């Protein structure tokens, strides 16, 4: 006679087998297209100041930021 399925078993099931997957290696230092592109790098400070002006206007005028960016 076999044991019922609801009866607890004294044997533990084997642990699940997992395979470790290695991710990409971390970058060695800063990299990106903006470092290699002098024109973009020169325009970045001006773009940052323009964005900060937009945010300041939103905060002062109670206009949602997404409305100005759309």
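Sequence proposed for the structure above (70 residues):
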């Amino acid at each position: 006679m076999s044991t019922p399925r609801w009866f607890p078993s004294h044997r533990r099931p084997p642990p699940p087998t997992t395979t470790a997957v290695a991710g990409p290696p971390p970058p060695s230092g800063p990299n990106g297209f903006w470092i290699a592109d002098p024109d973009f790098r020169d325009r970045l400070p001006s773009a940052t100041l323009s964005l900060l002006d937009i945010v300041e206007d939103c905060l002062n005028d109670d206009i949602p930021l997404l409305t100005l960016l759309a």
